[in-house]
Specification:
disordered N terminus, eight-stranded parallel barrel, alpha/beta, 538 residues, 26 strands, disordered C terminus
């Protein structure tokens, strides 16, 4: 006995292929062809990865964003729609530059000074540091923070701990409150670039005890050590003697920090090396040193950093995440076999490329990010945290939103996360594809509901799908979800979306036959329940 569910696809070229789904009672689905040139096969019995979907849909916050951005009602509603399982703080490279607590150093709890004010104070002959900071607490190249209380933290600009002229628009207290009230996990990146062990330990203690406050403790499970300290651009990469951070020095510091932090709270999870790329700097050495407490391994991925314009090339770079994860899994198995099932793999920053341009904000990043999430899920990534929530530049920006856009329309990457949250399942099943390389397919199953995501990364070639059902009627309906330039249009001059709306959802009767077109630069998800199909004899 088999269930037959047939798709017929053709590419608008001299290419024709049949896309068929058939399954037996054991929930094997076969998408095959009879007279076609290409085929796609999905086997729902062969689960290749299981994951907590919401933990792959995290994003990065930052103390450099205004509190009003986070409190915007429309923003909170949009964020709920992608259901992030984790939010990271206090904000990328700032993690290596930040004193999280400024008590007795910052004179006022509201002593935020914007860059323009700082500049004008200097122009008028004043000293802005004296306005906001008690400079007598600068001792032996460090700031003497009184951890018996709390005031907003502050930022330094060099390894001598000279004060920066900009300290952000909010503080870690606000971010902790925001994340905890949202109801997801928190990841804190502690300052291991210029910070001290005491600074990190006091943060761990403070989240639990919240001294001088009458509120419940902050529940912070994940603590990450440093940010991209393998990178020359990071404060803390160059040491006081002029040498550069290497694996030996990183691990030496890592062990001092994490052992003390674990002593303060044995239940926290600690991890590193927060490598700047899929080259995975310091990670093998960290895993190999079994004296180092290690609950998760983290790195960053901006794989298409040198590619301009060509989406298919960008997608091929995204697929390399599988090689990086495979290496980490092998190192864990080789050096820490007792932990091979417990050490998590975290991509704590990811985006299409580091340097923002139009591809980070136009429709290409919807398609690319849909692939990237799919590849991370397939590879076995446990935690993925997109970079970032609000950053916007004239050239493009990494942010899911431009907070200065009065209409707050989501940027393109948001919709990839939305599609995965709303329409894909938590178990990825095996697919075999014989189709043009610009077609990517991901299939998932959850509660007997199958989702097949088709991504067309071609800029010019459309794909037509003729969905043909067996003569016998199936019991229920199925959905076809579409995201394309009908849902997202970017205004090239301002780089703000003039249209940014949810995907179109069509509910189709299983008794009907209908042509469906996958346009260039678009995504389709076909979603249906296995147990709604009528069994048909071979």
């Amino acid at each position: 006995m088999k269930l037959n569910f047939i798709f017929r696809l053709k590419i608008i070229l001299p290419l024709f292929f049949l896309f068929a789904i058939s399954c037996n009672c054991k929930k094997n689905i076969s998408l095959s062809t009879d007279d076609s040139k290409f085929k796609i096969t999905v086997d729902t019995k062969d689960i290749i990865s299981s994951y907590n979907k919401s933990m792959l849909l995290g994003t990065n916050t930052g103390v450099f964003f205004r509190e009003s951005y986070y409190l915007n009602h429309d923003f909170i509603n949009y964020l709920e729609q992608i259901n992030p399982g984790i939010l990271r703080m206090p904000g990328g490279s700032w993690s290596n530059e930040l004193y999280w607590n400024g008590n007795k150093v910052r004179i006022s709890k509201e002593s935020y000074i914007e860059a323009d004010t700082w500049k004008k104070t200097i122009e008028n002959g004043g000293n802005p540091i004296e306005v906001a900071f008690d400079t007598t607490r600068y001792k032996n190249g460090k700031w003497d923070v009184d951890y018996s209380g709390y005031s907003p933290g502050f930022r330094i600009r060099d390894i001598q701990h000279h004060l920066s002229d900009y300290h952000g628009m909010t503080d870690v207290l606000f971010l902790h409150k925001f994340i905890q009230s949202f109801g997801c996990e928190t990841m804190v990146t502690v300052n291991m670039g210029t910070g001290t062990v005491d600074m990190a330990v006091e943060w761990v203690k403070w989240t639990k005890t919240r001294k001088n406050y009458l509120f419940e403790p902050f529940d912070v499970k994940y603590w990450e050590l440093g940010n991209e300290l393998d990178g020359k651009w990071e404060l803390g990469h160059y040491l006081e003697d002029g040498s550069e951070m290497d694996a030996k020095e990183y691990i030496k510091r890592y062990k001092l920090f994490t052992k003390a932090m674990k002593k303060a709270d044995p239940d926290i999870k600690v991890g590193g090396s927060v490598a700047s790329s899929m080259k995975l700097a310091f990670i093998e050495e960290l895993i190999k040193d079994t004296d180092a407490p290690l609950d998760f391994v983290s790195f960053h991925a901006y794989p298409a950093r040198r590619i301009k314009g060509d989406l298919l090339k960008m997608i091929k770079e995204a697929i390399r995440i599988n090689d990086a994860v495979a290496k980490i899994k092998k190192w864990i198995a080789d050096y820490r076999p007792d932990q091979k099932d417990s050490i998590e793999i975290a991509v704590t920053e990811w985006n299409i490329k580091v340097k923002e341009d139009i591809s980070t904000i136009d429709l290409r990043n919807t398609l690319w990010s849909a692939v990237m999430i799919g590849e991370m899920a397939k590879a076995g990534v446990d935690i993925a945290i997109q970079w970032d929530i609000f950053s916007t530049k004239e050239e493009g920006g990494h942010g899911l939103f431009n907070p200065e856009d009065k209409d707050l329309k989501p940027h393109s990457q948001y919709w990839a996360m939305y599609l995965w949250n709303k329409f894909m399942g938590s178990k990825m099943v095996k697919t075999q594809i014989d189709a043009p390389e610009f077609i990517r397919v991901y299939a998932t199953i959850e509660n007997n509901e199958v989702s097949v995501m088709l991504i067309n990364s071609s800029k010019s070639q459309s794909v037509d799908i003729d969905i043909l059902f067996p003569k016998e009627k199936l019991r229920n309906r199925f959905e076809v979800i579409t995201f394309s330039n009908n849902q997202y249009i970017l205004e090239k001059k301002s780089l703000n979306p003039v249209k940014s709306v949810p995907p179109m959802v069509e509910v189709m009767s299983n008794a009907s036959s209908k042509d469906i077109s996958i346009a260039p630069y678009s995504i389709k998800v076909i979603k249906y329940k296995l147990d709604t199909m009528k069994v048909i004899n071979d």
